[in-house]
Design goal:
By secondary structure, the protein is an alpha/beta fold. Helices cover 43% and strands 17% of the residues. The chain has a seven-stranded parallel sheet with strand order 3-2-1-4-5-6-7. Strands 10-9-8-11-12-13 form a six-stranded parallel sheet, sandwiched between helices.
């Protein structure tokens, strides 16, 4: 398609800034900017980073709207239309990355007319599972924020069909394109390293929805198998205590940068994700792109991309089912390699970054 006239601004929320994501700068900013520039005149990023962003070697800093005056984040958000007047007025498309950041482009659109605001809806921020451990005021805050977005914004890129149906239940007039979160296939790839035998890998936040206690419980009967867990979260200390108590062969690494993650995906034999709840997991997609065989829970979003014993293994969320899937994977390594090849073909077709940006451009062109 022809390049669209006008620039885009991708708004990022206070918890997902460049400083926070500095280990992922290439895939989250540079790769995305280069891909979008094939279809839009220019690309900018809006972030709540203060001047500490200037300490990072960030090549796109001239294309980034950030808090140069080190205001409090609420004051910065309120003053955004003044502080970034020139670029906000220039851009034709405001992209809100997830619900948390989407109130800011909506707010700016009240000052600058004829702007097309699109929400990239990766998950329902207000769902009961995500709010389960939160206090009452936080729950009310999230629900009101989500309601405002659904009430006043009509354009969405939804990560899967489930999220699309949720949006339509609240906003029947919404225009929605279903596009899974993409990856750069040149970056996530099979490095053709020798894989460890009987070595399982989990990558993700160490939080309740990831179902990690059942994963550890499932590992309890395997003496010849290792579990490697990459990521941080509120359950880390409890999980390590549980692992030590029962003598489970599990190793915790904390959070790693993108290059280290790619290496991990290339040296272990099976990737496992037994979550109770996911959007479409970036870690799962990245694993498939690196051709590591995958085991995942048979939750609705995983069912959208995994066909059992065709491009991966599915299991239930209980420890017994997880254990049975692990046992199958260990006993059928050739089958698992076959599944991983099929998974890679699916990733090429559905998750390529350049194809994704082209589809986004097609969507906004018709708004």
């Amino acid at each position: 398609m022809c390049k669209l006239k006008g620039a885009i601004i991708e708004f990022r929320n206070p918890g997902n800034t460049i400083v926070v994501q500095k280990s992922n700068i290439k895939k989250l900013f540079i790769d995305k900017s280069n891909a979008y520039k094939k279809y839009f005149e220019d690309v900018y990023f809006y972030t709540f980073d203060k001047r500490n962003i200037e300490k990072i070697d960030f090549p796109l800093i001239q294309k980034t709207l950030y808090n140069k005056y080190n205001f409090h984040s609420i004051i910065y958000a309120f003053l955004t239309p003044i502080l970034h007047y020139k670029i906000l007025k220039k851009a034709d498309y405001y992209f809100g990355l997830q619900v948390q950041s989407s109130l800011y482009p909506l707010y700016c659109s009240f000052f600058f007319k004829n702007k097309k605001v699109v929400v990239f809806w990766n998950f329902n921020w207000a769902c009961k599972i995500r709010l389960k451990e939160k206090n009452f005021l936080y729950k009310i805050f999230v629900k009101i924020w989500t309601w405002v977005i659904l009430k006043f914004i009509d354009n969405y890129i939804a990560i899967n069909k489930i999220e699309k149906e949720f949006i339509l239940n609240y906003n029947p007039n919404a225009k929605i394109e279903v596009l899974p979160t993409p990856i750069n296939l040149e970056y996530y790839r099979n490095l053709k390293l020798e894989r460890k035998i009987n070595s399982l890998l989990f990558i993700g936040r160490l939080e309740p929805e990831k179902n990690l206690f059942n994963l550890l419980k499932a590992m309890n009967c395997f003496n010849n198998c290792e579990l490697h867990l990459v990521g941080d979260g509120s359950l880390k200390d409890e999980l390590i205590e549980y692992k030590n108590k029962f003598g489970i062969n599990a190793i915790f690494y904390g959070k790693l940068d993108s290059d280290e993650v790619i290496k991990m995906l290339n040296i272990h034999s099976v990737f496992i994700l037994p979550s109770y709840y996911e959007g479409i997991s970036n870690a799962l997609v990245e694993a498939m792109a690196c051709k590591i065989p995958v085991i995942a829970s048979a939750i609705p979003t995983n069912l959208e991309i995994i066909k059992d014993k065709e491009n991966g293994l599915l299991c239930s969320t209980d420890a017994e089912s997880i254990r049975a899937a692990i046992l199958y994977a260990l006993n059928n390594p050739k089958k698992m390699i076959e599944f991983s090849e099929n998974a890679y073909k699916m990733i090429e077709e559905k998750f390529d970054l350049n194809k994704y940006c082209e589809k986004v451009a097609e969507f906004v062109k018709n708004l």
